Amino acid sequence: MGFVSPVTLMVVVLILARWAAEIWLDGLNRRHVQAHADAVPEAFKGIVDAATYHKSVQYTVAKSGLGQIETSCDAAVLLLALLSGILPWGFDLFRHGFGVSPWAMAAFIFVCGVALWLPGLPLDWYAQFRLEERFGFNTSTQKLWWLDRLKGLLLGIILGYPLLVLVLKLVDWANGWWWLWAWAAVMGFQLLMSILAPVLILPLFNKFTPLPESSLRERLLKLAERTQFQARSIQVMDGSKRSRHSNAFFTGFGRFRKIVLFDTLIQQLIEPELEAVLAHEIGHFKKKHVPKMLAASALISLGGFYLLSLLANQAWFYRSFGFEPGSLAVALLLFGLLSGVVTFWFSPLAHWWSRRYEYQADSFAAKVMNEPRSLIGALRKLNEKNLSNLTPHPVYSGFYYSHPTLLEREQALAQPPSHGQAIQRIA
Ligand SMILES: [Zn+2]
Questions:
Q1: How many angstroms is it from 357 CA to the middle of ligand 1?
Q2: Measured between alpha carbons, how far is 346 from 338 in angstroms, rounded to an integer?
Q3: 3-class DSSP state of 235
Q4: Which site from 22, 149, 231, 412 is most exposed, i.e. has the minimal number of CB atoms within 10 Å?
Q5: How close is the Cα of 282 to the center of ligand 1, in Å?
Q6: Residue 362 known to be catalytic
Q7: What would the pLDDT profile of 19-70 be if each residue is shown by its tens digit?
Q8: Catalytic residue among 26, 74, 273, 362
Q9: Could you tell me if 241 and 330 are in contact, meaning their C-beta atoms sit under 8 angstroms apart?
Q10: How far is residue 316 CA from its own chain's centroid?
Q11: What single DSSP character describes residue 132?
Q12: For the segment 122-136, what is each residue's pLDDT rounded down to a tens digit?
């Protein structure tokens, strides 16, 4: 490299800064966990036994080691893609072979995306079949795992490729305002997906069955009635097909809405605990957390598209990475590759916001259950069964955790109801 432009230099600094921050945060967290590893911390005595605690420490340390390798690989792949000249070389090859129509250009972006996804596959495989396996979580088979990847790729082609073509065509149709139209197209697509995914996409990966007639079903339907939550159905998902980790969520809009409980969750919790988990999910719904999050992400992507439209007009943006100026497909690709090194620094803000919503949903659940014990019981079991890290470093959890830690949630729930003020503040 004879000449390095200031832009290239800045990009290298950004990539290395994110890499260094991730490695540093991870080391901080690992040392913190290991410092507490010898005995069950006071706050968790009687909640978790020594053997489980010990195992959760080992699980955390093992995941941290793999995470560091992943972080380093990602940074290396990104640096190589942006600086080696392989992208402009591939672009020329593509242009000469297939022309510059939106169809060809969208295919170029797609091929680059797949090429950048491939190097991470062996690590994903290792995480599932070595690491998760070692701690007794993996229940997936090789065949199922590869089939999942293949289905994901096909869905990307069927759904993502036409969207890319549309965005590139809009540049010709809408001229200077293309970014606004492109944003509207992407938003419309996302909205459509959130309606269709529960009906068309999720069933491609998992089997959903209505919760059968039982005292549990009675109890959950009563809760839905009490909270005026119109549940079309409560579905059980065969999460145990891939993993022993457990979860619950609700998905879809309006009449497509469904509550989903993992079969693993039903095995692990007793009825009042399951009711509390569902109450927590209903809390998210009642407090309109999903539309609020969607609105925020829509605003952010509007800003993103506008920024892209500005960058796409700058010759230096292309030249810094070895391209001739002018192709929006190239600008889109570069923007996609670079956005992560900037958005990374805002993730603590997003996670802080998400944790606030978790507290609100917890407090809602405790209120409609008339007691916080069931939810606390459920959270304790979930942390235990999933071998969650009970003692993350506060800086680490502040940066990465979308949910508060077990201790934080218990403390918030332990506030007596008479402290309406305090609960109001959390809510
Ligand atoms: Zn939640």
A1: 7
A2: 14
A3: strand
A4: 149
A5: 9
A6: yes
A7: 999 999 999 999 999 998 888 888 888 888 888 898 999 999 999 999 999 9
A8: 362
A9: no
A10: 33
A11: I
A12: 999 999 999 999 988
